[in-house]
Amino acid sequence: MDIRIRAYRVTDRDSVREIAWATAFLGEPGDAFFTDKELLCDFLTGYFTDYEPQSCFVAEAQGRVVGYIIGALDAGRVDSVSMRAILPRLVARLLWRGVFCRRRNRKLLFHLLKSFLKGEFFLPAFNREYPATLHINIARGFRGQGTGGRLLSVFCDYLKSRRSPGVRLATMSETAREFFSHAGFVLLATRPRSYFRYLGRDLRVYILGKTLV
């Protein structure tokens, strides 16, 4: 099947969110750990599609979006906008919608708090050497066809055209770690992510970076 890579359009927003939900847990649907699809998609994709859509690209097959790479030139701005504008709105909606009345969501919150108190979320800052960031996902049935590599190549060319010195990302997937390693990314840091142990998964987060100059 012919798959083309193109710039993200506003009309792609729902498709990107569908793929984000369908791949949220190590390539599997997000309902493994959270029940509210809309809120999880806001958390995963909201900044990129709503605040920096010019740094996003999609893979399209026969008029259907089957993958995406959503990114930002400045990860520090992502954090700032998220803390100031996105997260407060998400927390308000979590409370308003009664999301934590559901047992699955309460378990996630409990284990997230435990991980936070253990210091698992504290990571070194790499904003100077690797200011850009990205997230990439491919729909099931379209993986293993080189689409991810093509998306990554287009995104890195975009970053170079903006004179970005480097890009970094975080992943808990061993498959993704191997993919990015083959693409020239190096391991910058790693930390345990014990909050998924209640699902029978003992995971780590890997921070990977690539120099572009």
Structure in words:
By secondary structure, the chain is α+β, with helices and mostly antiparallel strands. Helix content is 40%, strand content 23%. The protein has a 7-stranded mixed beta sheet with strand order 1-2-3-4-5-7-6, with helices on both faces. It is globular. The protein starts with a strand and ends with a strand. The relative contact order is 0.16.
Descriptive labels:
213 residues; seven-stranded mixed beta sheet; globular
Q: Unreliable segments (pLDDT under 50, ≥5 consecutive)? A: none
Q: In which range does the helix fraction lie?
A: 40-55%
Helix vs. strand class:
alpha+beta
The number of helical runs is 6
Query: Which oligomeric state applies?
Result: single chain
**Termini separation (Å)?**
34 Å
Arithmetic mean pLDDT? 94
Give the helices and strands, then pairings.
Blueprint: E1 3-7, H1 13-22, H2 37-51, E2 56-61, E3 64-72, H3 75-96, H4 103-117, E4 132-138, H5 147-161, E5 166-171, H6 174-182, E6 186-193, E7 203-211
Parallel strand pairs: 4-5
Antiparallel strand pairs: 1-2, 2-3, 3-4, 5-7, 6-7
Helix pairs in contact: 1-2, 2-3
